Amino acid sequence: DAMVIQNPRYQVTQFGKPVTLSCSQTLNHNVMYWYQQKSSQAPKLLFHYYDKDFNNEADTPDNFQSRRPNTSFCFLDIRSPGLGDAAMYLCATSHDGTGTFEAFFGQGTRLTVV
Amino acid sequence: LAKTTQPISMDSYEGQEVNITCSHNNIATNDYITWYQQFPSQGPRFIIQGYKTKVTNEVASLFIPADRKSSTLSLPRVSLSDTAVYYCLVGDPSSGTYKYIFGTGTRLKVLA
Predict the structure, then answer these.
(1) pLDDT per position as a tens digit, A50-59
(2) Does residue B14 carry a pLDDT above 70?
(3) Quick one: DSSP state of residue A77?
(4) Along the 114 residues of chain A, how does pLDDT read in single tens digits?
(5) What pLDDT does residue B92 have?
(6) According to the model, what pLDDT value does residue A99 have?
(7) Which residues 64-93 of A have a C-beta within 8 angstroms of B?
(8) Cα separation of A77 and A6, whole Å?
């Protein structure tokens, strides 16, 4: 049973055309993360939400934005995708305060920019 | 955040035990050590977590020496399906500002 669901699994967008990736969770976790993973590289944290508090990584380009309208959903908006933004985008959740160090990842959305 | 260093890649044969070591020289007192596994085109998956000595679950064992400056993930009797990238993460899970930062990982290839 899926716990962190990302849609779509594959997304093709045009250069410069805004695109939104979505993530939903059934775990009721208070923390949600977005990662970018390029081929043969480790996942790179873009930002995360702690409840409604948005935390941006210092090196995340302004081209990347995020929204979290409620506990269950989180969106990644790429305002003007460039060829260099082609990657797998991973959503993850965790629950603060449990004392365990387990993040649950979705299957990812593979973004292609043409 | 404690930085981690792992071998870039390892090869093994089916049925062998595989040990992957992670170095984390500046680990903090409250930091835990956690390992994730990632198959191609999938998100990482939690394998095991420990603070000190030895932890074992149905998938792997984690050995942590007394100084905690390194740790070793042990996979018993690997199979072809264990071919994946393995990441070592270090941090304090009780911290409200905790972020999961991945290092380079170790690419394990299991051969028949």
Answers:
(1) 999 999 999 9
(2) yes
(3) E
(4) 669 999 999 999 999 999 999 999 999 998 999 999 999 999 999 999 999 999 999 999 999 999 999 999 999 999 999 999 999 999 999 887 666 678 899 999 999 999
(5) 80
(6) 63
(7) 88, 90, 92
(8) 14
d(CA B3, CA B5): 7
Which pairing describes strands B106-111 and B9-13: parallel, antiparallel, or unpaired?
Answer: parallel
CB-nearest to B101 from A45, A98, A110 is A45
Q: Which residue has the tokens 């870039």?
A: B8
Please tell me whether the peptide bond between A8 and the residue prior to it is cis, using omega within 30 degrees of 0. yes
Residue B67 CB-density burial (10 A; 0-12 exposed, 13-18 middle, 19+ buried)? exposed
Locate tokens 């170095």: which residue? B23
How far is residue A46's CA from residue A23's CA, in Å, rounded to a whole number?
14
Distances in whole angstroms, Cα of residue B37 to Cα of each of A70, A98, B2, B75 = 29, 21, 19, 11
CB B100 within 8 A of CB B90: no
Closest chain A residue to B30 measured between Cα atoms?
A99
CA distance B41 to A113: 18
Residue B51 tokens, joined: 């603070």
Segments of chain A assigned E as strands: 4-7, 10-13, 19-25, 31-37, 44-50, 53-56, 64-67, 73-78, 87-94, 104-105, 109-113
| Contact residues on chain A for B98, CB-CB shorter than 8 A | 94, 96, 101
CB-closest option in A92, A98, A100 to B43: A92
